[in-house]
């Protein structure tokens, strides 16, 4: 019965419009829309990847082998099941044109390529014609960036290894390019047969082969995958198919989307502060209504239900508007977004991300409105005639505290479920709650400090009025510090993480990293290679080692993933080396190294940190598939491997007798002055055309370019959080406008000038903004340090330009909001204001 009365009264009050709830709705709409928009874009990309899976992969399925071509049995298996098979070899090499040299990712194809899609060239021509060449030279097509690096034009010649090619066209679109993942050099496309005399695909060189299958319509992809892996269990085969043609991109999109949604949740938490402030301000404005209801016999339960239903209806409206906005904007801006993406995307209304955003919005609205609603029920009727919140306790009844805590737990659990990254979710939730707690303490400390400092401002009226207002019983500081502070915290943390990542890559890494990686050095070339470098006083250090690639397939006779889980070492093939005597720079942390002349059963030395993560121990047996052959060895030692220097590091090393007979090449790292790099590159690639040189500085530039996109995405997410915080700030300023109008009227009556009153309001806003910004800066720096230290496992330094920008931004934001609403207070006539107050 009481619920029916509450619903009728709530409906009547809502007829008065949305006055007092505009900021409430704006905060909720912004938070929900951000999460719905991010989820919709992610779903659109996933749908595009699924639809174009075959085209992106280059076929319905792909079988990949490391550093070898398929055997006759493997090729026969493929041809028996596919309508067509295309063979692709992929490797890095040096492209040379005159004195110009550039690293390139070479794709060597057969006549069947591409099985799906089309290669686009400039000038337009069929790929077959472009690769046919002219004047006795085979043809090639190059990425426009590589053409620019080499300084060549259409019709010019260049060299790969010892083979000359004629440039026939620029490669403007590669249908299966997205499936290739991150590349250190731009693409070259040539015919496989034309590499026969290049010296680039000699035994032991580093390349992979991919066999794309055009399957009959309706082929059972899961069954074919099982058959292939069962038939060639110990071959090192890797299978992909059109169900997930670009697993690397799909995983990246999923993880980045999950991270951005967690950033969006931080924005929703900021909006929650605004929601809570709006509810408190709304209830304070309903003093006479609530007092009348209490006088007529309404109990606490009925009053709670009336305003719970009102706020629930408005929350539902805000959630619906946020869902429509977040789902509709990607559809409206679909062409613009697609133009910026390197992968296909189908933007439509996807129910899952919209439902996810709605759940987040509903839980946030409940968490942040329950507390002020519960406190209202505790206020006595006589108190309500004076001030709706003045008589309320600091905390509501314990049942509401427990319900709020339970809802917070549900929100975190839902975020863990939706994001799939429970560790990141818990860190984010813990960080947000810790930041809110720190900001609440800071607001209380700011009020106390203002009261303590007010007597020191004697003779400075504007300062004393500002400090007195901040320290007053009327809590104006808390919503400002919480909303603006949390938004600035997210922005500060993102800025510090991005700045430190860029610093580690662009500043610190080159100081520790080698100048070059050289790969594909044949055994008979090692002597001459070292002779050239050892005689150069600009070269400070050289490291070289034999290099093979292998896939860890079993641990103690069981599938490796069943023992070590989804550890990154098992995701792909890994570098494997061998040695006789223990190398000078190798530090064994457990066990013993085999002797220099050891020829017994294979022994393994494993990287200590990764071994601990995988649960390996001394005496364990590991099976590695190398060039299609299984080699099982026993772990006899662990050693320290430091990957942070970008130098030479192998997860797995074996005794020399276990691997020396397998075809392989050598790799080397060279540390030299930057001035000597050009001469080293020219001399070595001229003397040994098959050797590939990877200049570390160029690799850093490509990684930095990738970071630009990630940083832009996270910055937009943080900016949305900050915008929500600014809306909350406006709401807090609007809620305090009547108090400022009354304050200005009293001061004018006592003889204060408009300029001095405005200065007081500006000082109040600036001090609150500075307080919020300083706390946010400390929290953001702490969050950035935690991510760099615990997640990235690297050093941390405060990025002061970003830090100072955060403080300046906080001061400016509060100044703009405070002065904007203070102007109306200054223009109000004191007589009318004071009479209205009476």
UniProtKB/TrEMBL annotation:
Q: Which InterPro entries match?
A: ABC1_TM_sf, ABC3_permease_C, Membrane_comp_ABC_pdt
| TM annotation in the entry | 21-41, 256-283, 304-337, 357-377, 398-418, 424-446, 761-787, 799-826
**Keywords annotated in UniProt:** Cell membrane, Membrane, Transmembrane, Transmembrane helix
Pfam families associated with the record: FtsX
Instruction: Please list the residue ranges annotated as the ABC3 transporter permease C-terminal domain.
Output: 262-375, 719-828
The protein's topology relative to the membrane is: Multi-pass membrane protein
* Main location per the UniProt record: membrane
**Where is this protein localized, as stated in its record?**
Cell membrane
PANTHER family cross-referenced by the UniProt entry? INNER MEMBRANE PROTEIN, MEMBRANE COMPONENT OF PREDICTED ABC SUPERFAMILY METABOLITE UPTAKE TRANSPORTER
Full protein name: FtsX-like permease family protein
Organism of provenance: Thalassovita aquimarina
């Amino acid at each position: 019965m009481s619920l029916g009365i509450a619903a009728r009264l709530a409906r009547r009050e809502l007829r008065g419009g949305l006055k007092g709830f505009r900021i409430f709705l704006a905060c909720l709409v912004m938070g929900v829309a951000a999460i719905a928009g991010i989820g919709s874009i992610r779903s659109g990309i996933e749908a595009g990847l699924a639809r174009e899976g075959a085209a992106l992969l280059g076929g319905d399925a792909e079988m990949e082998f490391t550093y070898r071509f398929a055997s006759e049995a493997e090729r026969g298996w493929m041809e028996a099941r596919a309508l067509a098979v295309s063979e692709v070899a992929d490797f890095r090499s040096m492209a040379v044109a005159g004195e110009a040299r550039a690293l390139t990712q070479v794709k060597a194809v057969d006549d069947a390529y591409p099985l799906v899609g089309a290669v686009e060239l400039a000038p337009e021509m069929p790929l077959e014609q472009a690769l046919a060449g002219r004047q006795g030279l085979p043809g090639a097509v190059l990425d426009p960036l590589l053409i620019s690096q080499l300084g060549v034009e259409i019709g010019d010649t260049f060299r790969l290894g010892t083979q000359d090619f004629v440039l026939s066209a620029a490669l403007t679109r590669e249908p299966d390019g997205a499936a290739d993942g991150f590349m250190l050099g731009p693409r070259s496309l040539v015919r496989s047969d034309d590499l026969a005399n290049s010296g680039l695909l000699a035994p032991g060189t580093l390349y992979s082969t991919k066999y794309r299958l055009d399957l009959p319509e309706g082929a059972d992809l899961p069954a074919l995958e099982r058959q292939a892996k069962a038939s060639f269990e110990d071959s090192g085969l890797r299978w992909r198919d059109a169900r997930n043609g670009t697993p690397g991109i799909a995983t990246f999109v999923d993880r980045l989307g999950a991270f951005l949604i967690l950033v969006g949740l931080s924005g929703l938490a900021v909006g929650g502060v605004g929601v809570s402030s709006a509810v408190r301000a709304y209830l304070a404005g309903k003093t006479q209504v609530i007092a009348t209801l209490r006088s007529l016999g309404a109990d606490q339960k009925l009053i709670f239900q009336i305003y719970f239903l009102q706020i629930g209806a408005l929350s539902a409206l805000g959630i619906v508007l946020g869902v429509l906005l977040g789902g509709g904007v990607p559809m409206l801006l679909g062409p613009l977004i697609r133009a910026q993406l390197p992968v296909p995307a189908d933007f439509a209304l996807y129910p899952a991300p919209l439902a996810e955003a709605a759940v987040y919005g509903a839980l946030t609205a409940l968490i942040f409105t329950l507390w002020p609603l519960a406190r209202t029920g505790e206020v006595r009727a006589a108190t309500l005639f004076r001030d709706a919140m003045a008589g309320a306790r600091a905390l509501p009844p314990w049942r509401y505290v427990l319900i709020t805590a339970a809802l917070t737990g549900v929100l975190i659990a839902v975020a863990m479920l939706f994001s799939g990254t429970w560790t990141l979710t818990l860190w984010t939730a813990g960080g947000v709650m810790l930041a809110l707690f720190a900001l609440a303490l800071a607001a209380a400390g700011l009020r106390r400090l203002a009261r303590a400092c007010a007597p020191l401002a004697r003779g400075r009226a504007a300062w004393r009025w500002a400090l007195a207002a901040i320290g007053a019983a009327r809590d104006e500081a808390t919503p400002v510090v919480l909303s603006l502070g949390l938004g600035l915290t997210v922005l500060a943390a993102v800025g510090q993480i991005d700045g430190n990542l860029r610093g580690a890559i662009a500043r610190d890494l080159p100081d520790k990293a080698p100048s070059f990686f050289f790969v594909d050095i044949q055994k008979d070339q090692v002597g001459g290679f070292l002779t050239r470098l050892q005689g150069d006083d600009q070269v400070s250090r050289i490291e070289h080692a034999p290099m093979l690639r292998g896939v860890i397939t079993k641990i103690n006779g069981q599938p490796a993933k069943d023992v070590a889980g989804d550890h990154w070492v098992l995701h792909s093939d890994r570098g494997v080396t061998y040695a006789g005597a223990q190398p000078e720079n190798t530090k064994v942390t457990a066990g013993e190294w085999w002797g220099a002349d050891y020829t017994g059963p294979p022994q393994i030395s494993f990287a200590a940190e990764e071994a601990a993560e995988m649960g390996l121990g001394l005496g364990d047996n590991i099976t590695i598939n190398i060039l299609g052959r299984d080699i099982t060895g026993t772990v006899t030692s662990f050693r320290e491997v430091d990957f942070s220097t970008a130098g030479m590091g192998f997860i797995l090393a074996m005794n020399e007798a276990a691997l020396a007979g397998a075809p392989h090449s050598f790799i080397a790292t060279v540390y030299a002055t930057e001035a000597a790099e050009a001469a080293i590159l020219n001399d070595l690639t001229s003397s040994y055309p098959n050797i590939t040189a990877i200049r570390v500085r160029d690799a850093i530039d490509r990684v930095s370019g990738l970071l630009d996109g990630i940083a832009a995405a996270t910055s937009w997410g943080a900016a949305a959080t900050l915008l929500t915080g600014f809306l909350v700030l406006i709401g807090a300023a609007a809620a305090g406008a009547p108090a400022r109008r009354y304050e200005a009227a009293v001061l004018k009556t006592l003889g204060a000038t408009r300029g001095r009153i405005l200065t007081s309001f500006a000082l109040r806003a600036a001090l609150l903004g500075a307080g919020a910004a300083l706390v946010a800066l400390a929290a953001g720096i702490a969050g950035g340090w935690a991510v760099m230290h615990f997640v990235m496992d690297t050093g941390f330094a405060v990025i002061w330009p970003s830090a100072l920008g955060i403080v300046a931004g906080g001061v400016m934001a509060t100044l703009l909001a405070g002065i904007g609403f203070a102007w109306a207070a200054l223009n109000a006539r004191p007589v009318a204001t004071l009479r209205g107050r009476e």
